[in-house]
């Protein structure tokens, strides 16, 4: 039965245009083609990324946080108090979410989230995205399809793979596997579900584009995404360090790059290339529909995040907030912030006054 399922899964008509078979993509005459077995290495590489991340955060990013003056603020777990829990359950707007959890009452004591732990994570992502963007541009900048998108499909699918394309794919896919493996243990953000959808859709897209030899289009899409991600992570790093002016300026650049790349270039150039140009060469097949459907999922997420970014930019202009609208803070922290605002007035530097213990830095 397993062999039958495998034969259906790898049926050529699912993955390749009509009149082509896997035999057409076998290595020959020194030309190497993408194979599904190439991706097996990405799982152990993902765990290697998790190890490297731990070492980077411990020996590089955490000392950096100390140098930037980001102080560690650890939550103190209050002793169980039946009277307080009963009172909170009766008065809270979301009693089921945190019943028996003292974190809500801790907000009134001025015990905020651990921003000292958030900066190392953003430092790790910033480092990867920046290096990945530089590597991605090095992979594609000298290729004809970088300048003429019709070249993406020239000779498709019999397009050999270059070593630089192979490693770019393996590293990117391994990194997203590592993000998916660690997402449950990382700080839970407001867009936790959207992040899972994004990581899964990205992994499926990268894997499928490798199977079906959509590698030229895949390298363009990955480089396009990396072009703005490192800017967001750098803005968050400066936000955690209370370098507000630097954070705001970088965020403005990030917002502009994000909107241009994700809402203009991706749908009107790249997706046009993957939707329209292939039909000039061969009839549509399952892989064509599947790839573009997953691209549509990513585009919907981009629109969702663009809405949050624009809303955050508006708050920048009005001086209401300076932190990521998607929030790296735990979801249960939201109500404690709201209660503090009600009791203490407007936010100070994007945090309730009792939580804003760091001194403002002049940058």
Structural summary, described in words:
This protein has 363 residues and is an all-alpha fold. Helices cover 62% and strands 0% of the residues. It is built from 13 helices and no strands. The protein starts with a helix and ends in a 19-residue tail after the last helix.
Summary, kept brief:
Helices cover 62% and strands 0% of the residues. The protein has 363 residues and is mostly helical.
List the main descriptive attributes of the protein structure presented here.
about 375 residues; mainly alpha; disordered C terminus
- Counting DSSP H or I runs of 4 or more residues, the number of helices is 13
Low-confidence blocks of residues: 95-114, 329-362
> Could you state the order of secondary-structure elements as H and E?
HHHHHHHHHHHHH
Q: Biggest sheet, in brief? A: none
Strand-pairing-aware structural class: mainly alpha
Which value, in Å, is the CA radius of gyration?
Answer: 24 Å
Distance between the termini: 65 Å
Summarize the amount of helix as a percent range: 55-70%
- Strand fraction: under 5%
Shape type: globular
What is the average per-residue confidence, as pLDDT, rounded to a whole number?
79
Pathway: Sphingolipid metabolism; Lipid metabolism; sphingolipid metabolism
Transmembrane segments: 38-56, 126-146, 166-184, 196-215, 250-270, 290-310
Subcellular location: Membrane
Region (Disordered): 324-363
């Amino acid at each position: 039965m397993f062999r039958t399922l495998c034969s259906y899964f790898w049926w050529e008509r699912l993955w390749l245009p009509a009149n082509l078979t896997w035999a057409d993509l076998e290595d020959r005459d020194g030309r190497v083609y993408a194979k599904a077995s190439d991706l097996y290495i990405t799982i152990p590489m993902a765990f290697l990324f998790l190890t490297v991340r731990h070492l980077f955060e411990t020996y590089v990013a955490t000392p950096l946080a100390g140098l930037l003056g980001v102080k560690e603020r650890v939550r103190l777990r209050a002793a169980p108090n039946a009277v307080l829990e009963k009172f909170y359950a009766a008065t809270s707007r979301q009693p089921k979410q945190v019943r028996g959890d003292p974190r809500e009452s801790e907000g009134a004591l001025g015990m905020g989230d651990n921003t000292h732990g958030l900066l190392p994570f953003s430092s790790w992502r910033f480092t990867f995205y920046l290096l990945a963007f530089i590597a991605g541009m090095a992979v594609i900048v000298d290729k004809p399809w970088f300048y003429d998108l019709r070249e993406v499909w020239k000779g498709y699918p019999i397009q050999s793979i270059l070593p630089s394309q192979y490693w770019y794919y393996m590293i990117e896919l391994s990194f997203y596997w590592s993000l998916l493996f660690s997402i449950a243990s990382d700080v839970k953000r407001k867009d936790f579900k959207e992040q899972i959808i994004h990581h899964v859709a990205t992994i499926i897209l990268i894997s499928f584009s490798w199977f079906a030899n959509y590698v030229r289009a895949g390298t363009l899409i990955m480089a396009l995404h990396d072009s703005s991600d490192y800017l967001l992570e750098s803005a968050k790093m400066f936000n955690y360090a209370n370098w507000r002016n630097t954070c705001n300026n970088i965020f403005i650049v990030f917002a502009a790059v994000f909107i241009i790349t994700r809402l203009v270039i991706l749908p009107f150039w790249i997706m046009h290339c993957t939707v329209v140009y292939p039909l000039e060469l061969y009839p549509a097949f399952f892989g064509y529909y599947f790839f573009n459907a997953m691209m549509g999922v990513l585009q919907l997420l981009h629109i969702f995040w663009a809405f949050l970014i624009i809303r955050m930019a508006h708050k920048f202009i009005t001086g209401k907030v300076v932190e990521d609208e998607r929030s790296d803070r735990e979801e249960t922290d939201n109500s404690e912030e709201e209660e503090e605002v009600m009791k203490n007035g407007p936010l100070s530097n994007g945090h309730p006054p009792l939580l804003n213990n760091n001194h403002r830095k002049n940058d």
